[in-house]
Amino acid sequence: MYLLIRTLNPDGSEQRVIYGTPADLTNPNQFAPTPWEAFTYDANDVAPVGVAQNAGLIALTSKSLVRTPTQQETRTLPPTNNVGDDKDPLLSGWFNGAPDVGGDIIAQTPLPTIEGEGFQPVASALKGKTRVPLVIPSALPKTEEVDRFYCTIITLEPNKYEAIIGWTNECGGGNACRIGSFYGKRSLGDRIMGSENYPFERRRARRVRLMGGITGYFVDATCGANCSDSKVFWKQGGYEYMVGLKMGEMTNVVALANSAIRNRL
Predict the structure, then answer these.
(1) Per-residue confidence at 98, pLDDT binned at 50, 70, 90?
(2) Contacts of 142 (CB under 8 A, 6+ apart)
(3) Residue of 112, 140, 109 lying closest to 124 (CA atoms)
(4) Is 96's pLDDT higher than 80?
(5) CB of 37 within 8 A of CB of 74?
(6) Euclidean distance between CA atoms 122 and 150, whole angstroms
(7) CA angle at 79 for the pair 78 and 82, rounded to the nearest 5°
(8) How many angstroms separate the CA atoms of 37 and 129, rounded?
(9) Whole-model pTM?
(10) Does the pLDDT of residue 48 top 80, yes or no?
């Protein structure tokens, strides 16, 4: 069973991937093994504990880059008694299930089709299908002037859900049909991590105050060939949430986030 992958580069730098949850993000040597999460420490992150053969290797590294691992949520599970020893799901990619807390393999939950309008149908569809507490808005801001909308679930895992807000009930996130988006995920520590579909652009984030004294981070939309969502990210307990509106004004996205916080299920 793989718990840690350590890579030593020819220049003396080191990279580590740990399959577990660190007790302290600054110490990759102590962690609790779990199939749910993986943390990647690059050469900057492990500079103080890395191989010191080249003293000048990371001499100019900014302190803000040290000990800041990248967190990943994993669907795959290192080999256990439940899978054949001749197949390594981390390498072959053949495994398409999700591990249960005890290490048993459970089938991946199929994505439900939502026919009804508004947020209530998606809340009903997600309830009981993820361990993440549901934090879903009750309505769109009136200033968005949207009379009818649907939600499409694009990710449904024990530790994460993601959905598109669109003009149709089959919107996959395209620019023409998308109104906005939201997600909830398990996330340790105090830092906002974002997700693969909705990365958190830390350098562009602006701090905002949400209801209940919660600190949120607003990231404005960008436009090129298509326009992205303006988003607000925040943490509640051991979970991270995001709501977004395509090219949304900050006041509207903050209002949507407050609606979600107020409507926590």
Answers:
(1) very low
(2) none
(3) 112
(4) no
(5) yes
(6) 9
(7) 125
(8) 19
(9) 0.62
(10) no
Provide DSSP, 92-147: H----SEE-TTS-EEPPPPPPP--SSSSHHHHHHHTTS-SSPP---SS--GGG--S
Instruction: Average the pLDDT over 6-27 and give the result.
Output: 74
The H or E element containing residue 54 is none
CB 139 within 8 A of CB 119: yes
| Nearest-angstrom CA–CA distance, 6 and 28 | 11
Per-residue pLDDT of 75-94, as tens digits, reads 433 333 333 333 333 333 33
- Rounded mean pLDDT of 252-264? 96
* Nearest by Cα to 181 from 206, 151, 207: 151
Mean pLDDT confidence for 258-263: 96
**By three-state DSSP, how is residue 176 classified?**
coil
Cα 254 from Cα 218, distance rounded (Å) = 8
Tokens 């999700």, located at residue: 98
In the chain, what is the straight-line distance between the N-terminal and C-terminal CA atoms, in Å?
37
* Ordered structural domains, the chain, with CATH: 120-262 (3.40.1000)
